[in-house]
């Protein structure tokens, strides 16, 4: 059975097929639909083909280095098959994309067995931190865990209220910072509350900050330090919330955040609104950070654990039809 058919079979058994397919619709339009059009002029894996493929990969925001790597691998593979068909070329292409993602091992989410698991959410302004905090709350509650939120965005007016509203709706406690106060104080309060109330997951929403503002980045280090004093190993996870629509620019952001804090994973938001589905691959290649979850809409239920095979199938849907 071909790789694409295996992906299809696996995908057909997934529960959230429809969510993935509709979330990646735009990404599929730039990727699979454009690739399909190349079938008519397909004449083997030659320079012309590789050039067009590079363009499609770049439009999908795979990034130039990763696009080159994929093309190089595909060229090598095709060398062994002089009269390769379009269908098999597509099979190899998607298989190579999987290989490229899996070249570096995935880091797991760390859960604290001896008390609350502290998760810090970071990112630039408007990337989706607060909405993601709400989505994660919804997801962990469904898993039967107890959750509390910390509104540590003391910087932007209305930010605390925004999270408190979500907490109200989701029925979880929200430990609120003081507007214009020290966000670390809110983290300390949150950690103490979580310990006293046997909370499983403490999600800390922080203010949007530009990666080039050093005092704001230092503030993150302080939040790390104070949480570690309260709960051993905290923060157990530090996730960068990245807006997928910002594409390669987001990758630069991620690089700088990674230098200043101990990032353990990425959540890609607004996947539903972008054709740039390829950023997943470049993040993994360049930063060796796993994409843990993807945001596929604005509602609390619109978050999914990132699943490589479902992602690959969703953006390449249609290529599995043997022409
Ligand atoms: N379509 C879509 N919209 C999203 C997603 N995640 C967040 N948004 C929207 O993006 C906007 C910003 O989201 P917030 O959660 O407020 O972003 P933030 O990072 O907390 O913003 P600041 O606190 O101002 O830095 C809101 O309108 C959200 O509804 C997503 O996965 N898909
Ligand atoms: Mg916010």
Q: What are the salient characteristics of this protein?
A:
alpha/beta; 323 residues; Four Helix Bundle (Hemerythrin (Met), subunit A); single chain; binds magnesium ion; Rossmann fold; binds guanosine-5'-triphosphate; 2 domains; 50% helix; eight-stranded mixed sheet; 14 helices
CATH superfamily of the largest domain: P-loop containing nucleotide triphosphate hydrolases
**Range of helix content:** 40-55%
**Biggest beta sheet summary:** 8 strands, mixed
Rounded to the nearest angstrom, the distance between the terminal CA atoms is 16 Å
Q: Looking at the structure, what is the overall shape?
A: elongated
Order of strands in the sheet with the most strands?
3-2-4-1-5-6-7-8
CATH topology of the largest domain: Rossmann fold
Query: Compute the gyration radius: what is it?
Result: 21 Å
Q: According to CATH, what is the class of the largest domain?
A: Alpha Beta
Number of domains: 2
What small-molecule ligands were found? guanosine-5'-triphosphate, magnesium ion
Beta-strand percentage?
A: 5-15%
Average pLDDT, all residues: 93
* Number of extended strands: 8
Oligomerization status of the protein chains:
single chain
* SSE sequence, one letter per element: HHHHHHHEHEHEHEHEHEHEEH
């Amino acid at each position: 059975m071909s790789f694409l058919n295996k992906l299809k079979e696996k995908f057909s058994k997934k529960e959230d097929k429809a969510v993935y397919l509709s979330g990646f619709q735009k990404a599929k339009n730039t990727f699979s639909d454009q690739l399909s059009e190349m079938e008519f002029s397909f004449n083997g894996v030659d320079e012309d083909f590789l050039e067009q493929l590079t363009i499609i990969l770049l439009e999908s925001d795979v990034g130039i280095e990763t696009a080159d790597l994929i093309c190089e691998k595909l060229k090598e593979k095709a060398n062994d098959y002089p009269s390769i068909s379009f269908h098999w070329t597509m099979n190899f292409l998607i298989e190579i994309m999987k290989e490229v993602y899996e070249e570096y091992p995935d880091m797991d989410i760390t859960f604290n067995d001896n008390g609350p698991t502290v998760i810090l959410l970071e990112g630039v302004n408007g990337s989706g931190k607060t909405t993601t905090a709400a989505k994660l709350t919804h997801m962990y509650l469904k898993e039967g865990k107890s959750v509390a939120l910390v509104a540590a965005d003391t910087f932007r007016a209305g930010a605390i209220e925004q999270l408190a509203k979500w907490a109200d709706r989701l029925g979880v406690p929200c430990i609120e910072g003081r507007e214009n106060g020290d966000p670390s104080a809110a983290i300390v309060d949150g950690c103490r509350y979580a310990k006293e109330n046997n909370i499983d997951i403490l999600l800390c929403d922080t203010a949007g900050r530009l990666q080039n503002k050093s005092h704001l980045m230092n503030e993150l280090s302080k939040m790390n330090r104070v949480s570690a004093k309260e709960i051993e190993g905290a923060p157990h996870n530090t996730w960068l919330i990245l807006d997928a629509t910002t594409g390669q620019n987001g990758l630069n952001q991620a690089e700088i955040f990674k230098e200043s804090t101990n990032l353990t994973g990425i959540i890609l938001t607004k996947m539903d609104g972008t054709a740039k589905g390829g950023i997943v691959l470049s993040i993994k290649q360049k930063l060796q950070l796993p994409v843990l979850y993807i945001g596929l809409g604005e509602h609390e239920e619109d978050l999914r654990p990132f699943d490589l095979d479902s992602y690959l199938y969703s953006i390449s849907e249609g290529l599995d039809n043997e022409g």
